Amino acid sequence: MPPVRTRSRRRLLALVPAAALALALTACGSGGGSGSGGGSADPAAALDTPATITFWTWAPNLDKTVALFEQKYPKIKVNIVNAGQSATEYTKLQTAVKAGSGGPDVVQVEYFALPELALSKRLVNLKDFGAAGLESKFTPSAWSQVSVGGGVYAVPQDTGPMAMFYNKRILDELGLQPPKTWAEFEAAAVKIKESDPKRFITSIDPGDAGGMDSLMWQAGSRPFQQKDATSVAVNLQDPGAKKVSDLWSSLLSRKLVDAAPGWTNEWWQAMGSGQYAMWLTGAWAPGNIASTLPDSAKDWRAAPMPQWSAGENVSAEQGGSAVAVPSTSKNKAAAAAFAIWLDSDPQAVRSLNENGLFPASSELLKDQAFLDKPLASLGGQQANQVFASSSAAVGQGWQYLPYQVYANSVFKDTVGQGLTGDLGAGLTAWQKRIADYGNQQGFKVTAP
Amino acid sequence: MIGIAAPLGYAAYLSFFQDRMIGGNVFVGFDNYRRALGDELFRAGLWRVLLFLLVQVPVMLGLALVAALAVDSGRLRKPGLFRIGIFVPYAVPAVVASLMWGYLYGDRFGLVGQIGDLLHVDMPDFLGSSWMLASIGNVVTWEYVGYNMLILYAALRTVPHELYEAAEMDGAGEFRKAWSIKLPAVRSALVLATVFSIIGTFQLFNEPNVMQSLAPGVISTSYTPNMYAYNLAFNGQQFNYSAAVAVVLGGVTAIVAYAVQIRSMRKEQGK
After folding, report:
1. How confident is the model at residue A194 (pLDDT cuts 50, 70, 90)?
2. In a domain, A2, yes or no
3. Which residues span the domain enclosing A282?
4. Alpha carbon of A416: minimum distance to chain B alpha carbons (Å)
5. For A225-233, what is the mean pLDDT?
6. What's residue A41's pLDDT?
7. Which of A13-22, A128-137, B201-210, B255-264 has the lowest mean pLDDT?
8. CB-defined contacts A:B, below 8 A
9. Tens digit of pLDDT for each residue in A370-419?
């Protein structure tokens, strides 16, 4: 959800808008950079030294896992603070690090925002704090997303390998099987529409860059590439992107897919009342479905993503977060040790999963008990098998821009405005905005 | 005085720099202003609020004036209740008001959709691109009619009662009294309300920003100049350019508000 902020209007005869004042406050003090504090870089010693660390996160129920940590390492006290979701939190983090104080010691960062924060030196390279040997503990795609420019800037916490969640009741009613290819998906979309003009196979969110990124990722597109520290390449017209924009333009122009923002009250109502037959998203979704749609177990199931060629098995990630240590932390060693414990200790990883996060831990993804666990929210389906197989099939080599937070924010200005017909034109416009911004920021941008 | 001037001065100071991800912070003189003047997104936002200003403000002030005259006429059965009723929306935070109206506008599960289903007609999509500005205008009008009514009503209360009695002696009816006594009496209050509304309109932010989550494909990040400045700063880390946009916007607002004020003061003196 985009952040909601309060600000009163029409109260004072202020000549310069409130935004100018706010930014004047937030932009003050530059520099900051790498702080001095840090103590010992030895994680074991750090965990044995009394310290209090602040952890910014918006993941629900994290306090339960943190309680396990405090039991095990009673000398470290962890304060959990919800500093807002996603872009709201990153803005606060940028501000705090720029100012040099007031920031957290440990911070939740989504994968798409990590290159930006790492390259602008807002985060500590965790290789200096014992993270170098952790690679084998995580899925390859999660590890590659926290590795930026030769460093390791966060510990993967959860991932979102994509799956196709479908309303079994609707598919059964129409005698349909979950589509295995995108061609079958299109055919199913036609049948669903024919059964009721108010029904759609799924919706597409004009404000959600991440959803589009994942579809392109799965189709083999690699639109964002960081070539070196100062040059990036953007190509939102490569063959994979083209496949996605052709298919979805066609679905949209025939009104087989609904262009509607996700996560709104209307959208959940449409999900619950059977107006949408499917939701293509990350493996973290069952928790959200269960908490918002109480009867989900009756209707919703998971299946692998439709494929571009029959018999293939290619997937992508949608969302997911990692945990990082800002460069202004006064307790870097303890913070890093906590982050590493939280996301790699077997007991912690299990606890995170029980509280709704889909694991980034390769060990847990192979665990038989985990794979065989029936998910109550999906009618007892052993859906972790679907998700784990998707996780193993995530296409390699995907990258985000060093300014992806901005790029995502103008998705709705470009692609989002064109969701009535030609997606390709929207992608071209998005590419132009991304290239312009990159050039303004001093990058060398190559775009076709 | 320093407390007022310092943030303005700092914003102006910031607007002469550029802090880039590669290359760092450099002095760029008037570059940011040159860019702002040629920026199509900024210009489109300005035109949008100008259109809003030309339509919404007269409608809102007209309604406020009618309401103020009605309360003042003494012919309403429960004037206190009427006054409070119109004023209450002003006490509702703009964010809450926008959310609430956003739900009502929903064409599938909102009130609008339900009315459409009930009457078996296709209701217009109030959150679609052709209706959005009008929908926002409706929310703003709903919020501020009461506030403006109070300003105008206060002005009406200052008219000495003898004036009405004298008019009645001369055979003037209610409409004649309203036209010849009351309207001239609220003139300067009306100018004040207009200036407030102009400033408020140029700063339009809360309503479109909240509705953006309901219609991201319609409300872009540069929908209004204020939203543009905000998003430049907080999504793009372009604080310096944002400061320049804010200064230009402040200048435009000041010029328009001042022009309206001067014009109406001249008219008054000319009479």
Report:
1. very high
2. no
3. 160-318+396-446
4. 5
5. 91
6. 63
7. A13-22
8. 182
9. 999 999 999 999 999 999 999 999 999 999 999 999 999 999 999 998 77
Distance of residue B57 Cα from the nearest chain A Cα, in angstroms: 13
Buried b (16+ CB within 10 A) or exposed e, A62-79: beebbebbeeebeebebe
Helix orientation angle between B94-105 and B111-119, rounded to the nearest 10 degrees: 20
Residues of chain A with pLDDT > 90, as a percent, come to 78
Amino acid at site A172: D
The answer to whether the complex's ipTM is over 0.90 is no
Question: Could you tell me which of A282, A283, A280 has the C-alpha nearest to residue A384?
Answer: A283
Tell whether A349 and A296 lie within a shared domain: no
Residue B205 identity (one-letter amino acid): F
**By residue range, what is the domain housing residue B63?**
45-92+143-265
**Residue of B108, B213, B229 with shortest CB distance to A1:** B213
CA atoms of A346 and A65, how far apart (whole Å)? 11
Tell whether B57 lies on the interface with A, counting CB pairs under 8 A. no
Query: What residues of A are in contact with residue B20 (Cβ under 8 Å)?
Result: 440-442
Is B20–A441 a contact, with Cβ atoms under 8 angstroms apart? Answer: yes
Q: How many domains does chain B have?
A: 1
Q: How would you write A96-122 as a 3-class SS string?
A: HHHHCCCCCCEEEEEHHHHHHHHHCCC
Query: CATH number, domain at A202?
Result: 3.40.190.10
Give the mean pLDDT of B12-23.
92
pLDDT band for A42, please (50, 70, 90 cuts): confident
Measured between CB atoms, does B206 come within 8 Å of chain A?
yes
Which residues have a Cβ under 8 Å from the Cβ of B126 and sit 6 or more positions away? B105, B107, B112, B132, B134, B135
Task: Indicate whether A226 pLDDT > 80.
Answer: yes
Give the minimum alpha-carbon distance from A362 to chain B in angstroms, rounded to a whole number: 34
Q: How many residues are there in chain B? A: 271
Looking at the domain assignment, is residue B136 inside a domain? Answer: no
Asked if residue A389 is part of any domain, the answer here is no
- Tokens 């293509």 label which residue? A280
**Closest CA relative to residue A94, chosen from A117, A110, A112:** A117
- What pLDDT digit, counting tens, does each position of A258-290 carry? 999 999 888 999 999 999 999 999 999 998 898
Using left for φ > 0, alpha for ψ between -120 and 50, and beta otherwise, residue A128 falls in alpha
- Tell me how many domains chain A contains: 2
DSSP A391-427: HHTBPS-----TTHHHHHHTHHHHTGGGTTS-HHHHH
Among candidates B204, B217, B253 on the partner chain, residue whose Cβ is nearest the Cβ of A412: B217
Q: Do A9 and B200 touch (CB under 8 A)?
A: yes
Q: pLDDT at residue B270 above 70?
A: no
| A91 chain-B contacts, CB cut-off 8 A | 234-235
Interface of B with A in 223-242 (CB under 8 A): 225-226, 229-231, 233-239, 242
Check whether residue A82 and residue A152 sit in a common domain.
yes
CB within 8 Å of chain B, chain A residues 96-115: none
The answer to whether A99 touches A29, Cβ cutoff 8 Å, is: yes
> Is pLDDT at A39 greater than 70 in this prediction?
no
* Closest in B147, B203, B237 to A17, CB measured: B203
Q: What is the pLDDT of residues B41-64, one digit of tens each?
A: 999 999 999 999 999 999 999 999
